[in-house]
Amino acid sequence: MTTTTAPARTDAVALATELAGTFAERAAGHDRDGSFPQENIDELVASGYMSMTVPPEHGGGGASLEELCRAQQTLAAACANTAFAVNMHVHGIAMIAGIGGEAATRAYRSIVDDGAVIAGGFSEPGVGGNWWHPTTKAEPVPGGYLLNGRKGFFTGFPAADLLFLSAALTDDRGLPQPVGFLAPKPERGVRVTGEWDAAGMRATGSHSLALEDFFVPADRMVGEPGALPLMFMQGVHWAWCSFASVFLGIARGALDLVVREQRGRTLHVLDRTVAHLPGVQFRVAEMRTRYAAAEAHLYQAVRADHDDAVAADPLGHYIEMSVMKNSVCRLAHEVVTLAMQVQGGSALLSGHPLQRMYRDVVAGLLVPPNSDVTAEWSGKHALGVPVFAEPRWEG
Ligand SMILES: Cc1cc2nc3c(=O)[nH]c(=O)nc-3n(C[C@H](O)[C@H](O)[C@H](O)COP(=O)(O)OP(=O)(O)OC[C@H]3O[C@@H](n4cnc5c(N)ncnc54)[C@H](O)[C@@H]3O)c2cc1C
Protein backbone atom coordinates (compact mmCIF):
# COMPACT_ATOMS: atom_id res chain seq x y z
CA MET A 1 0.00 0.00 0.00
CA THR A 2 1.38 3.41 -0.92
CA THR A 3 0.66 6.50 1.17
CA THR A 4 1.48 9.12 -1.47
CA THR A 5 -1.89 9.86 -2.97
CA ALA A 6 -2.67 13.01 -4.90
CA PRO A 7 -5.91 14.92 -4.29
CA ALA A 8 -8.72 13.37 -6.31
CA ARG A 9 -8.84 14.51 -9.94
CA THR A 10 -11.83 13.88 -12.05
CA ASP A 11 -10.14 13.63 -15.44
CA ALA A 12 -9.27 9.94 -15.43
CA VAL A 13 -8.90 9.92 -19.22
CA ALA A 14 -6.19 12.58 -19.04
CA LEU A 15 -4.38 10.60 -16.34
CA ALA A 16 -4.56 7.42 -18.44
CA THR A 17 -3.22 9.31 -21.45
CA GLU A 18 -0.33 10.73 -19.40
CA LEU A 19 0.67 7.32 -18.06
CA ALA A 20 0.04 5.26 -21.21
CA GLY A 21 3.40 5.89 -22.87
CA THR A 22 5.46 4.60 -19.94
CA PHE A 23 3.14 1.65 -19.38
CA ALA A 24 3.44 0.69 -23.07
CA GLU A 25 7.24 0.66 -22.78
CA ARG A 26 7.08 -1.69 -19.79
CA ALA A 27 4.41 -4.01 -21.22
CA ALA A 28 6.63 -6.38 -23.21
CA GLY A 29 9.00 -6.98 -20.28
CA HIS A 30 6.23 -7.81 -17.84
CA ASP A 31 4.60 -10.09 -20.41
CA ARG A 32 7.88 -11.89 -21.09
CA ASP A 33 8.68 -12.37 -17.39
CA GLY A 34 5.09 -12.90 -16.23
CA SER A 35 5.86 -10.26 -13.61
CA PHE A 36 3.23 -8.10 -11.98
CA PRO A 37 3.42 -4.39 -12.98
CA GLN A 38 3.49 -3.11 -9.41
CA GLU A 39 5.20 0.13 -10.43
CA ASN A 40 2.30 0.89 -12.80
CA ILE A 41 -0.21 0.30 -10.02
CA ASP A 42 1.80 2.54 -7.67
CA GLU A 43 1.80 5.28 -10.30
CA LEU A 44 -1.94 4.91 -10.85
CA VAL A 45 -2.50 5.18 -7.10
CA ALA A 46 -0.20 8.18 -6.73
CA SER A 47 -1.89 9.95 -9.64
CA GLY A 48 -5.37 9.71 -8.12
CA TYR A 49 -6.62 7.39 -10.89
CA MET A 50 -7.61 4.69 -8.42
CA SER A 51 -10.05 6.92 -6.55
CA MET A 52 -11.85 7.91 -9.76
CA THR A 53 -15.09 6.09 -8.86
CA VAL A 54 -15.09 6.87 -5.13
CA PRO A 55 -18.05 9.24 -4.58
CA PRO A 56 -16.97 12.92 -4.34
CA GLU A 57 -18.49 13.27 -0.85
CA HIS A 58 -15.96 10.64 0.26
CA GLY A 59 -13.03 12.40 -1.39
CA GLY A 60 -13.04 10.63 -4.75
CA GLY A 61 -13.41 11.67 -8.35
CA GLY A 62 -17.01 10.49 -8.85
CA ALA A 63 -16.21 9.47 -12.42
CA SER A 64 -19.06 8.65 -14.77
CA LEU A 65 -19.24 5.26 -16.44
CA GLU A 66 -18.20 6.82 -19.73
CA GLU A 67 -15.13 8.40 -18.16
CA LEU A 68 -14.18 5.08 -16.58
CA CYS A 69 -14.53 3.24 -19.89
CA ARG A 70 -12.63 5.82 -21.94
CA ALA A 71 -9.84 5.83 -19.35
CA GLN A 72 -9.63 2.04 -19.11
CA GLN A 73 -9.68 1.76 -22.90
CA THR A 74 -6.76 4.18 -23.11
CA LEU A 75 -4.76 2.24 -20.52
CA ALA A 76 -5.55 -1.09 -22.18
CA ALA A 77 -4.33 0.08 -25.59
CA ALA A 78 -0.96 0.71 -23.89
CA CYS A 79 -0.85 -2.17 -21.37
CA ALA A 80 -3.89 -4.42 -21.26
CA ASN A 81 -2.55 -6.25 -18.23
CA THR A 82 -2.40 -3.11 -16.11
CA ALA A 83 -5.89 -2.05 -17.19
CA PHE A 84 -7.24 -5.51 -16.42
CA ALA A 85 -5.44 -5.65 -13.07
CA VAL A 86 -7.28 -2.50 -11.94
CA ASN A 87 -10.58 -3.30 -13.65
CA MET A 88 -12.16 -4.88 -10.58
CA HIS A 89 -11.00 -1.95 -8.44
CA VAL A 90 -12.38 0.87 -10.58
CA HIS A 91 -15.75 -0.68 -11.38
CA GLY A 92 -16.02 -2.60 -8.09
CA ILE A 93 -16.02 0.65 -6.11
CA ALA A 94 -18.84 2.02 -8.23
CA MET A 95 -20.90 -1.13 -7.71
CA ILE A 96 -20.25 -1.05 -3.98
CA ALA A 97 -21.19 2.65 -3.90
CA GLY A 98 -24.60 1.69 -5.25
CA ILE A 99 -25.14 -0.54 -2.20
CA GLY A 100 -23.53 1.70 0.42
CA GLY A 101 -23.11 0.71 4.06
CA GLU A 102 -20.22 0.52 6.49
CA ALA A 103 -18.04 -1.75 4.35
CA ALA A 104 -18.24 0.76 1.49
CA THR A 105 -17.44 3.77 3.70
CA ARG A 106 -14.42 2.04 5.19
CA ALA A 107 -13.19 1.08 1.74
CA TYR A 108 -13.45 4.67 0.44
CA ARG A 109 -11.41 5.88 3.41
CA SER A 110 -8.60 3.42 2.84
CA ILE A 111 -8.59 4.05 -0.93
CA VAL A 112 -8.51 7.85 -0.64
CA ASP A 113 -6.30 8.15 2.47
CA ASP A 114 -4.01 5.15 2.13
CA GLY A 115 -4.08 4.25 -1.56
CA ALA A 116 -5.67 0.86 -0.92
CA VAL A 117 -6.28 -1.34 -3.96
CA ILE A 118 -9.21 -3.76 -4.40
CA ALA A 119 -9.05 -7.14 -6.17
CA GLY A 120 -12.11 -9.32 -6.60
CA GLY A 121 -12.66 -13.06 -6.41
CA PHE A 122 -16.00 -14.52 -7.38
CA SER A 123 -15.15 -17.43 -9.65
CA GLU A 124 -14.15 -20.72 -8.10
CA PRO A 125 -12.79 -24.02 -9.33
CA GLY A 126 -15.80 -26.25 -9.97
CA VAL A 127 -18.15 -23.30 -10.28
CA GLY A 128 -16.23 -21.42 -12.93
CA GLY A 129 -17.91 -18.25 -14.06
CA ASN A 130 -21.25 -19.14 -12.47
CA TRP A 131 -20.74 -16.35 -9.96
CA TRP A 132 -24.09 -16.49 -8.27
CA HIS A 133 -23.44 -19.90 -6.74
CA PRO A 134 -20.33 -19.67 -4.52
CA THR A 135 -19.19 -22.85 -2.83
CA THR A 136 -17.02 -20.86 -0.43
CA LYS A 137 -18.72 -21.06 2.95
CA ALA A 138 -19.19 -18.20 5.40
CA GLU A 139 -19.73 -19.43 8.94
CA PRO A 140 -20.97 -16.96 11.58
CA VAL A 141 -18.60 -16.63 14.56
CA PRO A 142 -18.49 -13.97 17.31
CA GLY A 143 -17.77 -10.61 15.67
CA GLY A 144 -17.91 -11.80 12.08
CA TYR A 145 -17.54 -14.75 9.75
CA LEU A 146 -15.02 -17.44 8.96
CA LEU A 147 -14.60 -18.01 5.22
CA ASN A 148 -13.45 -21.34 3.84
CA GLY A 149 -13.18 -22.26 0.19
CA ARG A 150 -11.18 -21.72 -2.97
CA LYS A 151 -10.98 -18.89 -5.47
CA GLY A 152 -9.50 -19.04 -8.95
CA PHE A 153 -8.20 -16.27 -11.18
CA PHE A 154 -7.93 -13.55 -8.50
CA THR A 155 -6.66 -10.79 -10.81
CA GLY A 156 -4.51 -8.09 -9.24
CA PHE A 157 -4.00 -10.11 -6.04
CA PRO A 158 -0.33 -9.09 -5.63
CA ALA A 159 -1.33 -5.40 -5.31
CA ALA A 160 -4.51 -5.96 -3.33
CA ASP A 161 -5.09 -4.47 0.10
CA LEU A 162 -8.83 -5.18 0.08
CA LEU A 163 -10.45 -8.39 -1.15
CA PHE A 164 -13.95 -8.18 -2.63
CA LEU A 165 -15.26 -11.72 -2.66
CA SER A 166 -18.29 -13.94 -2.47
CA ALA A 167 -19.29 -16.72 -0.10
CA ALA A 168 -22.49 -18.47 0.91
CA LEU A 169 -24.16 -18.37 4.30
CA THR A 170 -26.52 -21.19 5.16
CA ASP A 171 -29.98 -20.02 6.22
CA ASP A 172 -32.39 -21.60 8.70
CA ARG A 173 -33.76 -23.87 5.98
CA GLY A 174 -30.26 -25.10 5.11
CA LEU A 175 -30.24 -23.15 1.83
CA PRO A 176 -27.16 -21.23 0.61
CA GLN A 177 -27.45 -17.43 0.64
CA PRO A 178 -24.75 -15.85 -1.55
CA VAL A 179 -23.21 -12.74 -0.05
CA GLY A 180 -20.37 -10.31 -0.78
CA PHE A 181 -17.56 -9.23 1.56
CA LEU A 182 -15.01 -6.45 1.21
CA ALA A 183 -12.28 -7.26 3.69
CA PRO A 184 -8.66 -6.27 4.28
CA LYS A 185 -6.20 -8.81 2.88
CA PRO A 186 -5.28 -10.75 6.02
CA GLU A 187 -1.89 -11.85 7.37
CA ARG A 188 -3.30 -15.35 7.75
CA GLY A 189 -6.28 -17.14 6.23
CA VAL A 190 -5.61 -16.57 2.53
CA ARG A 191 -3.02 -18.77 0.83
CA VAL A 192 -1.82 -18.61 -2.76
CA THR A 193 -2.21 -22.14 -4.11
CA GLY A 194 -1.19 -21.37 -7.68
CA GLU A 195 0.92 -18.50 -9.00
CA TRP A 196 -0.56 -17.13 -12.22
CA ASP A 197 1.27 -18.61 -15.22
CA ALA A 198 -0.80 -18.24 -18.37
CA ALA A 199 -0.58 -17.74 -22.12
CA GLY A 200 -2.37 -14.39 -22.02
CA MET A 201 -2.81 -11.58 -19.52
CA ARG A 202 0.44 -12.90 -18.11
CA ALA A 203 1.19 -9.83 -16.00
CA THR A 204 -2.10 -9.70 -14.08
CA GLY A 205 -1.14 -11.76 -11.03
CA SER A 206 -4.43 -13.70 -11.33
CA HIS A 207 -3.45 -16.23 -8.66
CA SER A 208 -5.53 -19.11 -7.30
CA LEU A 209 -6.26 -18.94 -3.59
CA ALA A 210 -7.38 -21.06 -0.68
CA LEU A 211 -9.43 -19.37 2.02
CA GLU A 212 -8.69 -21.14 5.28
CA ASP A 213 -10.59 -19.81 8.31
CA PHE A 214 -10.27 -16.32 6.86
CA PHE A 215 -11.89 -14.10 9.53
CA VAL A 216 -13.97 -11.23 8.15
CA PRO A 217 -15.48 -8.72 10.62
CA ALA A 218 -19.28 -8.46 10.46
CA ASP A 219 -19.22 -4.85 9.24
CA ARG A 220 -17.33 -5.90 6.12
CA MET A 221 -20.36 -7.59 4.60
CA VAL A 222 -21.59 -5.85 1.44
CA GLY A 223 -25.37 -5.85 1.18
CA GLU A 224 -27.67 -8.45 2.68
CA PRO A 225 -27.24 -12.24 2.70
CA GLY A 226 -28.84 -13.62 -0.46
CA ALA A 227 -28.68 -10.26 -2.23
CA LEU A 228 -25.59 -10.98 -4.33
CA PRO A 229 -27.46 -11.75 -7.60
CA LEU A 230 -29.61 -8.62 -7.26
CA MET A 231 -26.51 -6.57 -6.45
CA PHE A 232 -24.92 -7.76 -9.70
CA MET A 233 -28.06 -6.96 -11.67
CA GLN A 234 -28.35 -3.44 -10.27
CA GLY A 235 -24.71 -2.49 -10.85
CA VAL A 236 -23.90 -4.73 -13.79
CA HIS A 237 -23.43 -1.86 -16.26
CA TRP A 238 -20.35 -0.80 -14.27
CA ALA A 239 -18.88 -4.30 -14.43
CA TRP A 240 -19.55 -5.43 -17.97
CA CYS A 241 -18.90 -2.03 -19.57
CA SER A 242 -15.58 -1.84 -17.72
CA PHE A 243 -14.61 -5.36 -18.86
CA ALA A 244 -15.60 -4.54 -22.44
CA SER A 245 -13.61 -1.30 -22.45
CA VAL A 246 -10.39 -3.18 -21.64
CA PHE A 247 -10.77 -5.54 -24.61
CA LEU A 248 -11.92 -2.76 -26.90
CA GLY A 249 -8.74 -0.92 -25.89
CA ILE A 250 -6.63 -3.88 -27.02
CA ALA A 251 -8.42 -3.83 -30.40
CA ARG A 252 -7.80 -0.08 -30.73
CA GLY A 253 -4.12 -0.60 -29.93
CA ALA A 254 -3.84 -3.35 -32.57
CA LEU A 255 -5.65 -1.33 -35.21
CA ASP A 256 -3.51 1.76 -34.67
CA LEU A 257 -0.30 -0.28 -34.62
CA VAL A 258 -1.03 -2.19 -37.79
CA VAL A 259 -2.08 0.90 -39.74
CA ARG A 260 1.05 2.77 -38.61
CA GLU A 261 3.34 -0.10 -39.58
CA GLN A 262 1.84 -0.76 -43.04
CA ARG A 263 2.18 2.88 -44.00
CA GLY A 264 5.96 2.67 -43.66
CA ARG A 265 6.63 -0.96 -44.58
CA THR A 266 7.92 -2.17 -47.95
CA LEU A 267 8.67 -5.66 -49.25
CA HIS A 268 11.30 -6.40 -51.94
CA VAL A 269 8.63 -7.61 -54.35
CA LEU A 270 6.76 -4.29 -54.14
CA ASP A 271 7.76 -0.89 -55.37
CA ARG A 272 5.56 0.81 -52.79
CA THR A 273 4.44 0.35 -49.22
CA VAL A 274 2.42 -2.62 -48.03
CA ALA A 275 -0.43 -0.16 -47.49
CA HIS A 276 -1.01 -0.26 -51.26
CA LEU A 277 -1.97 -3.95 -51.29
CA PRO A 278 -5.72 -4.53 -51.77
CA GLY A 279 -5.80 -7.38 -49.27
CA VAL A 280 -4.26 -5.15 -46.62
CA GLN A 281 -6.68 -2.35 -47.42
CA PHE A 282 -9.72 -4.62 -47.24
CA ARG A 283 -8.65 -6.16 -43.97
CA VAL A 284 -7.94 -2.77 -42.43
CA ALA A 285 -11.38 -1.63 -43.60
CA GLU A 286 -12.90 -4.74 -42.01
CA MET A 287 -11.02 -4.05 -38.76
CA ARG A 288 -12.35 -0.51 -38.73
CA THR A 289 -15.90 -1.72 -39.36
CA ARG A 290 -15.81 -4.29 -36.57
CA TYR A 291 -14.10 -1.87 -34.21
CA ALA A 292 -16.77 0.77 -34.89
CA ALA A 293 -19.55 -1.74 -34.24
CA ALA A 294 -17.94 -2.76 -30.95
CA GLU A 295 -17.36 0.83 -29.87
CA ALA A 296 -20.92 1.86 -30.75
CA HIS A 297 -22.36 -1.07 -28.80
CA LEU A 298 -20.26 -0.34 -25.73
CA TYR A 299 -21.00 3.39 -25.58
CA GLN A 300 -24.68 2.90 -26.31
CA ALA A 301 -24.74 0.62 -23.24
CA VAL A 302 -22.68 3.13 -21.27
CA ARG A 303 -25.10 5.98 -22.02
CA ALA A 304 -28.34 4.05 -21.46
CA ASP A 305 -30.62 5.08 -18.60
CA HIS A 306 -29.49 2.41 -16.17
CA ASP A 307 -31.80 3.39 -13.31
CA ASP A 308 -34.83 3.13 -15.57
CA ALA A 309 -33.66 -0.17 -17.02
CA VAL A 310 -33.06 -1.69 -13.58
CA ALA A 311 -36.41 -0.45 -12.29
CA ALA A 312 -38.26 -1.84 -15.32
CA ASP A 313 -36.57 -5.23 -15.57
CA PRO A 314 -33.41 -5.99 -13.54
CA LEU A 315 -32.85 -9.35 -15.26
CA GLY A 316 -33.40 -7.81 -18.70
CA HIS A 317 -30.84 -5.14 -17.83
CA TYR A 318 -28.34 -7.79 -16.74
CA ILE A 319 -28.88 -9.73 -19.96
CA GLU A 320 -28.57 -6.64 -22.16
CA MET A 321 -25.25 -5.68 -20.57
CA SER A 322 -24.02 -9.27 -20.81
CA VAL A 323 -24.88 -9.46 -24.52
CA MET A 324 -23.01 -6.20 -25.06
CA LYS A 325 -19.88 -7.40 -23.22
CA ASN A 326 -19.78 -10.64 -25.19
CA SER A 327 -20.37 -8.92 -28.50
CA VAL A 328 -17.69 -6.28 -27.87
CA CYS A 329 -15.16 -8.89 -26.77
CA ARG A 330 -15.87 -11.12 -29.76
CA LEU A 331 -15.45 -8.22 -32.17
CA ALA A 332 -12.29 -7.09 -30.38
CA HIS A 333 -10.89 -10.60 -30.79
CA GLU A 334 -11.74 -10.53 -34.50
CA VAL A 335 -10.07 -7.14 -34.95
CA VAL A 336 -6.84 -8.39 -33.40
CA THR A 337 -6.98 -11.63 -35.43
CA LEU A 338 -7.30 -9.54 -38.62
CA ALA A 339 -4.40 -7.39 -37.43
CA MET A 340 -2.24 -10.53 -37.24
CA GLN A 341 -3.11 -11.36 -40.85
CA VAL A 342 -2.40 -7.83 -42.05
CA GLN A 343 0.97 -7.80 -40.34
CA GLY A 344 1.90 -11.29 -41.53
CA GLY A 345 4.40 -13.70 -40.03
CA SER A 346 6.35 -11.04 -38.16
CA ALA A 347 3.27 -10.58 -35.94
CA LEU A 348 4.04 -13.97 -34.40
CA LEU A 349 7.58 -13.09 -33.36
CA SER A 350 7.91 -12.83 -29.61
CA GLY A 351 9.33 -9.32 -29.94
CA HIS A 352 6.25 -8.04 -31.76
CA PRO A 353 3.50 -6.38 -29.68
CA LEU A 354 0.72 -7.95 -31.77
CA GLN A 355 1.32 -11.47 -30.53
CA ARG A 356 0.92 -10.18 -26.96
CA MET A 357 -2.30 -8.37 -27.88
CA TYR A 358 -3.52 -11.56 -29.59
CA ARG A 359 -2.89 -13.62 -26.44
CA ASP A 360 -4.40 -10.96 -24.18
CA VAL A 361 -7.56 -10.34 -26.20
CA VAL A 362 -8.55 -14.03 -26.02
CA ALA A 363 -9.21 -13.53 -22.31
CA GLY A 364 -12.16 -11.35 -23.29
CA LEU A 365 -13.91 -14.47 -24.60
CA LEU A 366 -13.32 -16.30 -21.31
CA VAL A 367 -14.05 -13.78 -18.59
CA PRO A 368 -17.62 -13.42 -17.35
CA PRO A 369 -20.40 -13.28 -18.24
CA ASN A 370 -20.29 -16.79 -19.67
CA SER A 371 -21.17 -16.53 -23.35
CA ASP A 372 -23.27 -19.73 -23.46
CA VAL A 373 -25.31 -18.74 -20.42
CA THR A 374 -25.75 -15.23 -21.84
CA ALA A 375 -27.02 -16.63 -25.14
CA GLU A 376 -29.42 -18.95 -23.34
CA TRP A 377 -30.80 -16.19 -21.11
CA SER A 378 -31.00 -13.69 -23.94
CA GLY A 379 -32.86 -16.08 -26.22
CA LYS A 380 -35.26 -17.21 -23.51
CA HIS A 381 -35.91 -13.66 -22.36
CA ALA A 382 -36.67 -12.50 -25.91
CA LEU A 383 -38.90 -15.51 -26.60
CA GLY A 384 -40.83 -15.29 -23.34
CA VAL A 385 -39.47 -18.59 -22.02
CA PRO A 386 -38.89 -18.37 -18.22
CA VAL A 387 -35.14 -17.82 -17.80
CA PHE A 388 -34.68 -19.70 -14.53
CA ALA A 389 -37.22 -22.50 -15.04
CA GLU A 390 -35.96 -26.02 -14.39
CA PRO A 391 -35.20 -28.21 -16.23
CA ARG A 392 -33.42 -25.68 -18.45
CA TRP A 393 -34.35 -27.55 -21.63
CA GLU A 394 -37.21 -29.99 -22.01
CA GLY A 395 -37.51 -32.93 -24.35
C1 LIG B 1 -7.32 -13.62 -17.42
C2 LIG B 1 -8.48 -13.94 -16.51
C3 LIG B 1 -8.62 -13.23 -15.34
C4 LIG B 1 -9.67 -13.51 -14.49
N1 LIG B 1 -9.81 -12.77 -13.32
C5 LIG B 1 -10.82 -13.05 -12.47
C6 LIG B 1 -10.97 -12.31 -11.25
O1 LIG B 1 -10.22 -11.39 -10.95
N2 LIG B 1 -11.95 -12.66 -10.42
C7 LIG B 1 -12.81 -13.67 -10.70
O2 LIG B 1 -13.68 -13.91 -9.91
N3 LIG B 1 -12.68 -14.39 -11.83
C8 LIG B 1 -11.72 -14.10 -12.73
N4 LIG B 1 -11.58 -14.83 -13.89
C9 LIG B 1 -12.31 -16.09 -14.06
C10 LIG B 1 -13.57 -15.92 -14.75
O3 LIG B 1 -14.33 -15.14 -13.91
C11 LIG B 1 -14.27 -17.23 -15.02
O4 LIG B 1 -14.56 -17.88 -13.85
C12 LIG B 1 -13.54 -18.19 -15.76
O5 LIG B 1 -12.86 -17.62 -16.85
C13 LIG B 1 -14.55 -19.19 -16.27
O6 LIG B 1 -13.79 -20.11 -16.86
P1 LIG B 1 -13.79 -21.63 -16.47
O7 LIG B 1 -12.69 -22.27 -17.18
O8 LIG B 1 -13.88 -21.77 -15.03
O9 LIG B 1 -15.09 -22.03 -17.24
P2 LIG B 1 -16.43 -22.59 -16.70
O10 LIG B 1 -17.26 -21.47 -16.21
O11 LIG B 1 -16.16 -23.72 -15.81
O12 LIG B 1 -17.00 -23.12 -18.07
C14 LIG B 1 -16.50 -24.27 -18.76
C15 LIG B 1 -17.35 -24.51 -19.99
O13 LIG B 1 -18.68 -24.80 -19.61
C16 LIG B 1 -19.57 -23.84 -20.14
N5 LIG B 1 -20.50 -23.51 -19.06
C17 LIG B 1 -20.17 -23.21 -17.77
N6 LIG B 1 -21.26 -23.00 -17.04
C18 LIG B 1 -22.30 -23.19 -17.87
C19 LIG B 1 -23.71 -23.12 -17.70
N7 LIG B 1 -24.24 -22.80 -16.52
N8 LIG B 1 -24.49 -23.33 -18.78
C20 LIG B 1 -23.96 -23.63 -19.98
N9 LIG B 1 -22.64 -23.71 -20.19
C21 LIG B 1 -21.83 -23.49 -19.17
C22 LIG B 1 -18.70 -22.66 -20.53
O14 LIG B 1 -19.27 -21.93 -21.59
C23 LIG B 1 -17.41 -23.31 -20.92
O15 LIG B 1 -17.51 -23.75 -22.26
C24 LIG B 1 -10.58 -14.54 -14.80
C25 LIG B 1 -10.44 -15.26 -15.98
C26 LIG B 1 -9.40 -14.95 -16.85
C27 LIG B 1 -9.30 -15.74 -18.15
Automatic annotation (TrEMBL):
Domain Acyl-CoA oxidase/dehydrogenase middle: 121-213
Organism name: Streptomyces rectiviolaceus
Tagged with keyword Flavoprotein: yes
Domain Acyl-CoA dehydrogenase/oxidase N-terminal positions: 23-108
Pfam families reported for this sequence: Acyl-CoA_dh_2 (PF08028), Acyl-CoA_dh_M (PF02770), Acyl-CoA_dh_N (PF02771)
Entry keyword set: Flavoprotein, Oxidoreductase
Protein name (Swiss-Prot/TrEMBL): Acyl-CoA dehydrogenase family protein
InterPro entries assigned to the protein according to its UniProt record, in alphabetical order: Acyl-CoA_DH_C, Acyl-CoA_Oxase/DH_mid-dom, Acyl-CoA_Oxase/DH_mid-dom_sf, AcylCo_DH-like_C, AcylCoA_DH/ox_N, AcylCoA_DH/ox_N_sf, AcylCoA_DH/oxidase_NM_dom_sf
Domain Acyl-CoA dehydrogenase C-terminal, residue spans: 243-363
